[in-house]
Every structure is written in C-alpha cells, then in structure tokens.
C-alpha cells in the first residue's frame, strides 16, 4: 500500500479526488489529509494579489467577507469531513485532521508518524508565495524527507 500525506486548504472537488486517487494507477493508496482553515495571518493581501493576477476582481472585493481564524474552524472541519468521505467513496483509505499552527511542523510529524511515501500539496495557485518559494510545497521539500508533489486544485476557494 502506498501512503500519501495530502495537504489541502479547502474541500476537495470530485475532479481533485479523481486526480489524486489515480496518480498511482491500480496501486492501493491510503491518504492522511491535513487541512488548515484560514488563519489570522496577514495573508489577505497576498490572496488579493493572486485574485488580481488571475483577473478575478470580484473575488478581491469579497475577500474581506471570508471568515478567518476561529470563525473559519467550522468551515474547515466540514471541508475536511467532505474530503475524507469523497476519498473513501473513491475506494481509498482516508483519515485527517485540522492544522492549528505551524503547518510544516505538523506535516513533518505526520510524515514520520505514518511513514509516508510522499506528500501531495493541493492548493489554489498562490503566485506571490510561489514566486518567492514560500508556499507549502517549496518549504516542505526541505523539511519532510520524502518526495513532494505540488498540484493545483480544480476550483477556486
């Protein structure tokens, strides 16, 4: 069995599930999912820049209405539950947890705990962070000791 740690920032779409579950052909895959709800970080500006870069100006205006911090936790719990169920329905083993703080430390600990074969980071594009190699995948490559695959999700958060 192949063991993947899957880092996400929102609920998986059916296209995302099909994509990650088909990466290894017929080999059985078990997923350990980490989801970080939107935190209180000062990343609202970065998300707005990403929206502008994608030409999604309406999203920039709506950004201030999206819950963050503790208010985002119930949405994160629901997104995790939906994602785990979708992976299980697709025939994969799946368990998961929310990340509160220090996502890369949580990722490293989980990779070691489950003896993961790989890490898959599945997020929306984050152009500013990716340009400066500050995105999860870039930073994880230097920390986890297993291959890290960066994929873009099939829908905007």
Layout of secondary structure:
Elements: E1 2-8, H1 14-21, E2 29-35, H2 44-53, H3 57-62, H4 73-89, E3 93-98, H5 103-114, E4 118-123, H6 127-131, H7 136-140, E5 148-152
Parallel strand pairs: 1-2, 1-4, 2-3, 4-5
Descriptive labels:
157 residues; alpha/beta; 5-stranded parallel sheet; 40% helix; globular
Please provide a written account of the structure.
- This protein has a five-stranded parallel beta sheet, sandwiched between helices.
- It is globular.
- It has seven helices and five strands.
- Helix 1 links the parallel strand 1 and strand 2.
- The relative contact order is 0.24.
- The longest helix has 17 residues.
- It has 157 residues and is of the alpha/beta class.
- The mean pLDDT is 82.
In short:
The protein is of the alpha/beta class and 157 residues long. 40% of the residues lie in helices and 20% in strands. Strands 3-2-1-4-5 form a five-stranded parallel β-sheet, with helices on both faces.
- The pLDDT mean sits at 82
Shape field: globular
β-sheet strand percentage: 15-25%
Number of E-type strands:
5
The first-to-last residue Cα distance is: 31 Å
Strand order of the largest sheet: 3-2-1-4-5
Structural class: alpha/beta
Largest sheet: 5 strands, parallel
Number of helices: 7
Q: Which spans of ≥5 residues are poorly predicted at pLDDT below 50? A: none
Query: What is the string of helix and strand elements?
Result: EHEHHHEHEHHE
Computed Rg: 15 Å
Estimated helix fraction: 40-55%
């Amino acid at each position: 069995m192949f063991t993947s740690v899957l880092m996400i920032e929102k609920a998986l779409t059916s296209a995302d599930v099909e994509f990650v579950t088909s990466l290894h052909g017929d080999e059985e895959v078990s997923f350990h999912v980490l989801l970080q709800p939107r935190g209180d970080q000062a990343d609202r500006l970065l998300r707005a820049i990403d929206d502008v870069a994608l030409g999604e100006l309406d999203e920039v205006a709506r950004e201030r209405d999206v819950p963050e911090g503790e208010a985002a936790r119930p949405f994160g719990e629901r997104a995790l539950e939906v994602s785990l169920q979708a992976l299980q329905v697709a025939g994969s083993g799946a368990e998961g947890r929310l990340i509160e703080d220090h996502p890369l430390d949580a990722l490293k600990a989980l990779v070691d705990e489950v003896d993961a074969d790989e890490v898959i980071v599945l997020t929306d594009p984050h152009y500013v962070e990716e340009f400066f190699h500050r995105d999860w995948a870039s930073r994880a490559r230097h920390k986890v000791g297993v291959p890290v695959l960066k994929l873009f999700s099939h829908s905007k958060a």
